[in-house]
Amino acid sequence: MLDLDQPIELVWGDSKPVSVKGERRIATLAKTLAERGERPGMYSVEVEVSKP
Question: Tell me, what's the pLDDT at 19?
Answer without folding.
Answer: 93
